[in-house]
Design brief:
This protein is of the alpha/beta class. The protein has one domain: Alpha/beta knot, CATH 3.40.1280.10. 33% of the residues lie in helices and 19% in strands. The chain is built from seven helices and seven strands. A seven-stranded parallel beta sheet has the order 3-2-1-6-4-7-5. Helix 3 runs parallel beside helix 7. The longest helix has 13 residues. The relative contact order is 0.18.
């Protein structure tokens, strides 16, 4: 099923509709992303790549929110999401869900060893060019606050920190644009 923007805006998915969607083992964590239009656009991105879940953390707004609904064109009703008080909490919960009680990682079809990768999208010390990263699934992408970026606590937990090279005078890209570039690189 493919819906146009107008149809998405008025759609009300049933549990049956949601179960039919084959989702990839891609998770997105918004670490204090404040702009509701960015959050809505991230829902659209998550839908576009069939991500499994978005985690809205800290001060990030959550649905129902008119601005999120407007920017997401209704995908906020189709993409699973959860709230966590911090991005660290979201990462810890995801890691627990991928670990067996005896400590071994859960295996997935996408990544036979079952390793959950945490990838922060951020400029700074220890970051690598996004084109050189390992995006084996299951994978978690973390994007941060529009001004302050991904929190230091989360950067310490990341398996990789990736950045997008900037060739002009501007230092950075919008959080949603950065996520879009990296997400599509990860699914090619």
């Amino acid at each position: 099923m493919k819906l146009a923007a107008k149809e998405l805006r008025v759609s009300q998915p049933t549990r049956s509709d949601l179960v039919k969607i084959k989702r990839r083992e891609i998770y997105i964590i918004c670490d204090n992303v404040l702009d509701t239009y960015n959050i809505g656009s991230i829902f659209r991105l998550a839908d576009a790549v069939a991500a499994k879940c978005i985690y809205l953390c800290g001060q990030s707004e959550t649905p129902p929110n008119s601005r999120i609904a407007k920017a997401s064109i209704g995908t906020d009703k189709w993409v699973p999401w959860q709230y966590a008080s911090t991005a660290v909490e979201a990462i810890e919960n995801l890691r627990k869900s991928y670990a067996h009680p005896w400590g071994a990682q859960r295996h997935s079809q996408a990544h036979p060893r079952g390793e959950l990768r945490i990838i922060a999208i951020e400029q700074g010390k220890g970051s690598i060019d996004f084109r050189k990263a390992d995006y084996s699934q299951p994978v978690v992408f973390v994007v941060g606050h529009e001004t302050e970026g991904v929190s230091k606590e989360v950067l310490k937990l990341a398996d990789q920190i990736v950045e997008i090279p900037m060739f002009g005078i501007n230092k950075s890209l919008n959080v949603m644009i950065s996520l879009a570039i990296v997400l599509y690189r990860s699914v090619e």
